[in-house]
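User: Predict the complex with uracil.
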Amino acid sequence: MIKPYIFDHPLITDKITRLRDRTTETTEFRQLVEQITALMLFEASRNLPVELRTVETPLVTTTCPVLAGAPPVLIPILRAGLAMVDPLLRMFPNSPVGHVGLVRDHDTLQPVRYLVKLPPVLSDRPVWVLDPMLATGGSVSAALSLIKEQGANDITLISLIAAPEGVARLERDHPGIRIFIAALDERLNDKGYILPGLGDAGDRLFGTE
Ligand code: PRP
Ligand code: URA
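Assistant: Here is the predicted structure with uracil placed in the model:
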């Protein structure tokens, strides 16, 4: 099992608090999700491979590291994961973007699949799964199973707020993945919402509540 990386940084905690606030409106909410994702990228990308390249500076010829290999494949889980794509594409403009559409059934809390469109090759390159909310873990776990079926073997999950129940589920179902979380919350309520949480991320992002 790889221990989840949980951020502890004032820039991130400040923005998470503003996301939690029920008075934060859609436009600001979306900007905050983008900003937090961009800040999380700094650590999430730490293990990307580098290779040495010869560079001529104005003064000398030297050998320096540059990023090596294919850029990460970005896979947002719809809808809420979509808001995390643009800040990552700004850093990795050549990343392919796959989409996994899942929606939780309100009664059973089971994810219902409505769209899967992935790049043909996911093996031997970083694959980053994006979803701001990890609640029961059912949606991310289902997405990871799909992605693994297509060969992904280097998987990172970037999630803004997680419940301990969701983390435990992923540790059980998908122990080999790396997990980056901006805030680990207390627990789920009896409707499967994260407490204290931020409510329904998709609705708040797209103004559908
Ligand atoms: C939310 C969220 C996750 C899922 C988390 O999506 O974005 O995908 O719930 O819950 P889980 O860990 O218990 O599966 P939702 O199903 O509400 O769809 P939406 O993004 O379209 O609103
Ligand atoms: N999905 C959300 O958007 N929020 C939660 O708290 C749980 C699942």
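DSSP finds six helices and twelve strands in the chain.
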